Amino acid sequence: SDAVVETDVVIVGAGPAGLFQVFELGLLGIKAHVVDSLPHVGGQCAELYPDKPIYDIPAIPVCSAQELIDRLMEQIKPFEPSFHLGHEVSGLKRLDDQRFELTTSRGQQFVTQTVIIAGGLGAFQPRPLRVKGAEQFNGSLIQYKVKDPERYRDKTVAILGGGDSALDWALELEKIARRVILIHRRKEFRGAQASVDKLMQLCTEGDIEFIPAQMKQVNEEEGRFAGLTVKPLDSDELQQVDCDEVLVFYGLSPNLGPIGEWGLNQQRNQIEVDTETFQTSIPGIFAVGDINTYPGKKKLILSGFHEGALAAFAVDKYLNPDKKQFLQYTTTSPVMHERLGVK
Ligand code: FAD
């Protein structure tokens, strides 16, 4: 793990709320570190609906969700945020000097004056295979991501799922595995058309076997993995699938996870905040975007933007209690122009 990062602000979550939070802090001259459990920025927009058009961003009549994220990244560039991607923030501890120590699942440590939770629905985790027998092999012969493709060389691999990850890995592993069997509960796929076409071609040529079927059971004989049982779509009879390894790509599901254990006042998996400051029940910890709740809360991107603006002022006040705050416009403020790098 890297050296401890000392900073004024750590933003947990790089969705639209976390990204715009960087901007609002930057205008006030405050730099931030941003941590996200996903390997890329953009939260739900990038993960769940990158190509869908959004129509309710002020002054942008329409743009795709990924484009919104790209534009936010462009907008925050002058403030040079540090990103820590692929890190789930797990531990929180208040130090004697009132700062917070945050730790990630990969062992990165932050010591920070304030924390802004922009965690949306929580950290995305791979959706587990939940059939009889699966638990016993989860994490061993049943994997949810490919750490090293070589593991599958000359093996028979069953790939479960019908989205881009399942398709991409089926196509990729076909080159090195002895055999790839794709199991999906429908005949249609949710992935990119080019991948679907390629897959169909390889199925016709016999390089990949596609079984449209429902997963029923993971089999075991004397404690050892013994393949899968599925129910094919076109048949009432169960079918045995022999394989050495299983890869599950059922998508990612959100989960409030470790943040739920930080002792913050919550209401149904959401963090209560004061709407003047967006501070939580713990002074120095703020929450913006989908993860917070207050009377009248609407889970919209534009709500997250507004919340980020007020949270930035509150963080500034928390960091500099004696400083007089006054509102400056980006159009006319020389100091903001300097921070934005515009002449
Ligand atoms: P998110 O986008 O959920 O991002 C939170 C990030 O925090 C995630 O990347 C997550 O990995 C990370 N995270 C959480 N916990 C941790 C942790 N412990 N450690 C590290 N990282 C963590 N809204 C609109 O306004 N207009 C629309 O048209 C619209 N359409 C939508 C369509 C769909 C299909 C969906 C699913 C949502 C739509 N929304 C829309 C809602 C909008 O996407 C959300 O309101 C918005 O993404 C919330 O932003 P956020 O930054 O608060 O959270």
TrEMBL record:
EC number(s) stated in the UniProt entry for this protein: 1.18.1.2
GO terms of molecular function: ferredoxin-NADP+ reductase activity; flavin adenine dinucleotide binding; NADP binding
Keywords associated with the record: FAD, Flavoprotein, NADP, Oxidoreductase
Keyword match Flavoprotein: yes
Listed InterPro entries: FAD/NAD-bd_sf, FAD/NAD-binding_dom, Fd--NADP_Rdtase_type_2, Ferredoxin-NADP_redctase_2
Residue ranges occupied by any FAD/NAD(P)-binding domain in the UniProt entry: 8-292
Reactions catalysed according to its record: 2 reduced [2Fe-2S]-[ferredoxin] + NADP(+) + H(+) = 2 oxidized [2Fe-2S]-[ferredoxin] + NADPH
Cofactors (names): FAD
Binding site for FAD: D36, Q44, Y49, V89, F124, D290, T331
TM ranges: none
Subunit structure of this chain's protein: Homodimer.
Record's protein name: Ferredoxin--NADP reductase
Organism of origin: Methylohalomonas lacus
